[in-house]
Amino acid sequence: MDKIFFQNSGAEANEAMIKMARKYGVEHFGPNKYEIITAKESFHGRTFGSMSATGQPDNACQIGFGAMTPGFKYAEFNNLKAFEDAITENTIGIMVEPVQGEGGVHPATKEFLTGLRKLCDEKGLLLLLDEVQSGWCRTGAVMSYMNYGIKPDIVSMAKALGGGMPIAAICAREDVSKAFTMGSHGSTFGGHPVCCAAALAEVNELLDKDLAGNAKKMGAYFLEQAREKLPHLKEARGQGCFLGLEFDDKINSVDLKHKCFDKHMLSTAIGEHVLRLVPPLILQKEHVDKAIAIIKESVEELAK
After folding, report:
1. First vs last Cα of the chain: how many Å apart?
2. How far apart are CA 7 and CA 154, in angstroms?
3. N or C, which end of the chain is more exposed by having fewer CB within 10 Å?
4. Could you report the per-residue pLDDT of 55-97, keeping only the tens digit for each?
5. Other CB atoms within 10 A of residue 218 CB
């Protein structure tokens, strides 16, 4: 990518991405060219622009705040035709997560993401990728979009970029980045030297130790073991070490999360039946085996 703009959090990075795309559209094509299509069940943040981009109108993050920011439409994830049909004369971009995290850990299909890139090229639209959760080696590549052999026009990142320190960023094509002229956007702490030093150390660690390669290998092993050993499992899915385990109606994911927590394993419940796992990228087989044993024991206790 050509340009980087540092932020402090994933939501702020997505705000910057939305603002850059909208300003680019208005400046190049007219005052109404600011509409962005996002995916149903997506999650992009909790600030007003990013929560308006989030395709979950019944989610608590959108309820009670009045009308959402205008300029967003939602289409079905992994449905290329739905996105194509949603395009209007006012559309400037398509914004998706390569792997929907809050939506239940659903990776984009190759056909869908490469199709979106082609569609954006044909229609003169910007492809905006939210890699706040999936970026920096989590999915078996440095960035998830690299698994698909495409390149976005703008990409957001946070979380793993700082290894726990508050730093985020957007990267963009140079011609698109020029939409941010003097005063267009700013950040109180963006590019903070301590956070940037931490991010540099983190990125060097991730790349030097090929933790993307480890995530790819360990993620595949985790899914294999889950499918073989976990009772009441409907589906195990994911990309690298970004994993989702969906169970049948007998297993409530919140109850399972608490059972696993009591046995000293951290996870997240998504909806009623999905357990989301984002383990450390230094994960080894013995850790996977221990996690599978904890989940199996917890499921069996809940199913009694």
Report:
1. 53
2. 14
3. C
4. 998 888 899 999 999 999 999 999 999 999 999 999 999 999 9
5. 24
